[in-house]
Write a structure and sequence with these properties.
By secondary structure, the protein is mostly helical. Helix content is about 70%, strand content about 5%. The longest helix is centred in the C-terminal third of the chain and has 32 residues. This is Simple sugar transport system permease protein.
Length: about 350
């Protein structure tokens, strides 16, 4: 039975998903279409959480900073007025540069908070959000003069809360078109996510991955064999931040709308919950957990409001199911992880 413990959480969510589909009374095509959209929008976010867990830092809730880097880059490109083709390239390059800078800062802070990385990363995410919102609510239009004043609020200070980027949404519309469920889309975003997932997999099996695993297992012994612990941990955070920024670019592009102040919120919680639903723990994770988790968690996330509405005959209660599922996943996985750790110590 011990060898199957890692499957307890995925099995639990698989059963919940089946029950949710039955209660929601929705068609298979509807679920497939929604899963396609959510896979594109959230797939890379789960991959961004892998490296810090390997390095023994737990869940990196500061991936919101990577998403902020992507939003800053997109805002700059929209402000200057680049064409969608050139703009996409500039957004990616600028996001990576900003993510390296921010990732270095986050890594340095988390190295000073060894043993408390998850709480520290959560606080860093909140702080980064506050600073980002202050810049674009107050500084933009006063200290920072925009190229395109149409993105500002009518008072001339602060960026509008929502910007239309429909031109970016149509970038892949005519490339490898497919129809999944009720949604027509492109195969290109799926290919991009699979390629990034393959790269992440190879990194986990490389020397860098070996060093991260060694640091995650025992920092003291890793240092004894010549591994630079702080540098390895910082590298894990930088790569996590870069992946999060690329994930947010995919999210924004697929949505076709940039929610300036709220577009990055809660993605850390939902991504963490999905990864844990896939069987990951705070100490052990792999690519399989990410891809299993995104389908299990988001299937339940899709059907839970409708299931709640049908069961309780109240639409408002259905929406509360989403938050309950997300936070409940983390609590449930935490309980399972703690229980497994206690049993491991006893043996």
């Amino acid at each position: 039975m011990k060898r199957y413990k890692e499957y307890y959480v995925p099995i639990f969510f698989f059963i919940l998903s089946i029950l949710g589909i039955i209660a929601a009374k929705v068609g298979f095509n509807f679920i497939l279409g929604e899963l396609y959209a959510r896979f594109i929008r959230n797939g890379i976010f789960l991959l961004a959480l892998i490296f810090p867990i390997m390095a023994g830092m737990g869940i990196n809730f500061s991936i919101t900073i990577g998403a902020i880097a992507a939003q800053i880059s997109m805002l700059i490109v929209i402000d200057i007025g680049f064409t969608p083709g050139l703009g996409s390239i500039i957004v990616i390059l600028l996001s990576v540069v900003l993510s390296i800078v921010f990732g270095n800062m986050i890594g340095t802070l988390l190295n000073r908070a060894k043993g408390k990385e998850m709480i520290a990363s959560m606080v860093i995410g909140f702080l980064g959000t506050s600073l980002y919102q202050i810049v674009f609510m107050v500084a933009y239009g006063t200290i920072i003069k925009p190229f395109n004043e149409d993105i500002l609020l009518t008072r001339g200070i602060g960026v509008k809360s929502m910007l239309d980027i429909g031109e970016y949404k149509n970038l892949f519309s005519n490339m490898l078109p497919i129809k999944i469920g009720n949604i027509e889309g492109s195969l290109v975003p799926i290919i991009i996510i699979i390629i990034i997932g393959t790269v992440v997999h190879f990194i986990t099996k490389s020397k860098i991955g070996y060093r991260m695993n060694a640091v995650g297992e025992n920092m003291y012994l890793a240092e004894k064999v010549g591994i630079h612990v702080d540098k390895t941990r910082k590298m894990a955070v930088i790569m996590s931040t870069i992946l999060a920024s690329l994930a947010q670019i995919m999210f924004i592009q697929n949505l076709g709308i940039l929610n300036v102040y709220t577009g990055h919120l809660n993605l850390d919680v939902f991504s963490s919950a999905a990864l844990l639903a896939g069987g990951a723990t705070f100490k052990k994770v792999n690519i399989r957990n990410a891809f299993i988790g995104i389908f299990l968690f988001h299937t339940l996330f899709i059907v839970s409001p409708l299931a709640g509405q049908n069961i309780f005959k109240n639409p408002a209660l259905g929406e509360y199911f989403r938050s309950f599922i997300a936070y409940g996943t983390i609590v449930f996985a935490l309980m399972i992880n703690l229980k497994n750790l206690e049993e491991a110590k006893d043996h």
